[in-house]
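tokens incoming
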């Protein structure tokens, strides 16, 4: 009897364990099922506001905004872009791009969310992709917008719980995008982003065999039954295929004055040993010879290095090249976020973020479709240069000027050391001489307290409009008479 009872107990325990294993297997299979329902957050609705393009808590359903950019079209329309940072202000973790435009010189604004993948729940999330740091460029009619794009769960330096973008090439030598199906252990799959047919491009293995999966032009993934099952930029657990978890240059174009943007393009200019190659941000330019120029920069967090450069296109944005990095000197130990403008003599002048606390710049000369940097110039104008600045060229009464906006504040710490802060925003007006030398002619105070990133544009009436970070999470639109700024 004891043996029979023991057998029954063993069978019962074995049956219970088997049942548990079966249930676990079913749950595991459901979680990994390729065609599991796709859960995405709802895209915020557009908004019309008065006087200000971005209203906290209303525009784009976001409580916070950062990194403003602004341009003017030939028809007088003012167009702006910012990061929607939702419930926080930190970099990464589910940021989207909100844009706004005004046809009445800033009295009313129409806004909408332009870059949106829907994996963030419209809030900070450790697994979300992120669009960050918009840069705008216009030929007067069309608008190109470039952002730095992080795949799911990644950021520049891995703070706030996010993982650091990796130092790996995201593209194969033939230009196809690398894909993984085993959570990044290997990249045995690829997709040709230049081979969309009827809006889709097939995912192939590295032997050129079709997997039956495909993506659309916004990188959403579809299975063999044409069911949408994720996005290749989602974190690996939310998508069957995933990209290399690094940074990407994400470019979109508008042909209707910024009222909508077309499908994106990934600009493959990050070097193989770089984890971050990102946007300027702010505004790019179209040079007098038609070259499109947008500022960018490289960062290596572990080595403490960064360097300014720019990307440029000589064929209307079809193909892009990358300039050499800005040189260093003993005063400027690094060059970060930058703004590029064209001088009357055809050279480019690049103003860049650095550690000198002196407004600094360097010129570049075009030579056989390449650009050659000159020597870095450190002016005697003191400012908080550890912050993105804005620089534009304008003219009045036959004279040429360069305007630079940036914070200039200082504070004294407990040890009596003076530190530069992101406060006391000013606009410096420099008059250019015949040799493009700069003479400071006037300084305008914008805001005494918090003043961080900013961007300026010349409006249709010849005056200056600016968007700037006025407080943590707020972006302000303001206008100035050019005659007042130059004094």
């Amino acid at each position: 009897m004891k043996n029979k009872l023991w057998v029954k107990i063993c069978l019962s325990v074995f049956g219970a364990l088997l049942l548990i294993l079966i249930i676990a297997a079913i749950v595991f299979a459901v979680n990994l099922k390729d065609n599991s329902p796709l859960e995405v957050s709802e895209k915020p609705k557009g908004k019309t506001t008065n006087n200000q393009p971005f209203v906290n808590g209303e525009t784009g359903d976001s409580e916070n905004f950062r990194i403003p950019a602004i341009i003017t079209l030939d028809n007088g329309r003012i167009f702006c872009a910012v990061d929607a940072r939702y419930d926080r202000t930190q970099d990464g973790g589910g940021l989207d791009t909100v844009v706004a435009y005004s046809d009445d010189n800033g009295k009313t604004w129409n806004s909408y969310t332009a870059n949106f993948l829907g994996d963030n729940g419209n809030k900070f999330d450790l697994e979300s992709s992120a669009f960050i740091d918009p840069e705008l460029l216009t030929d007067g009619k069309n608008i190109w917008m470039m952002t730095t794009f992080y795949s799911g769960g990644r950021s520049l330096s891995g703070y706030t719980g996010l993982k650091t973008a990796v130092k790996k090439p995201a593209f194969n030598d033939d230009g196809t995008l690398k894909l993984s199906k085993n959570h990044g252990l290997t990249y045995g799959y690829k997709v040709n982003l230049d081979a969309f047919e009827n809006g889709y491009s097939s995912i192939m293995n590295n032997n050129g065999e079709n997997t039956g999966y495909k993506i659309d032009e916004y990188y959403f993934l579809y299975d063999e039954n044409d069911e949408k099952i994720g996005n290749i930029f989602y974190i690996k657990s939310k998508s069957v295929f995933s990209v290399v978890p690094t940074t990407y240059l994400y470019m979109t174009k508008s042909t209707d004055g910024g009222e909508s943007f077309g499908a994106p393009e990934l600009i493959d200019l990050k070097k193989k040993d770089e984890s971050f190659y990102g946007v300027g941000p702010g505004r790019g330019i179209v040079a007098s010879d038609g070259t499109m120029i947008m500022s960018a920069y490289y960062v290596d967090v572990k080595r403490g290095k960064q360097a300014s450069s720019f990307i440029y296109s000589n064929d209307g944005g079809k193909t892009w090249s990358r300039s050499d990095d800005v040189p260093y000197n003993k005063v400027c130990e690094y060059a970060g976020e930058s703004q590029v403008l064209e001088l009357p003599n055809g050279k480019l002048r690049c103003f860049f973020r650095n550690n000198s606390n002196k407004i600094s710049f360097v010129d570049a000369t075009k030579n056989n479709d390449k650009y050659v940097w000159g020597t870095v110039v450190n002016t005697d104008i003191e400012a908080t240069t550890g912050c993105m600045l804005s620089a534009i060229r304008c003219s009045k009464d036959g004279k040429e000027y360069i305007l630079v906006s940036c914070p200039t504040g200082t504070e004294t710490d407990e040890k009596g050391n003076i530190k530069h802060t992101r406060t006391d925003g000013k606009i410096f007006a420099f008059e250019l001489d015949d040799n493009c030398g700069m003479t400071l002619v006037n300084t305008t105070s914008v805001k005494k307290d918090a003043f961080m990133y900013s961007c300026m544009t010349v409006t249709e009436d010849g005056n200056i409009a600016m968007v700037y970070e006025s407080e943590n999470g707020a972006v302000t639109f303001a206008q100035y008479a050019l005659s007042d700024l130059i004094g």
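note: Confidence is low (pLDDT under 50) at residues 5-11, 16-37.
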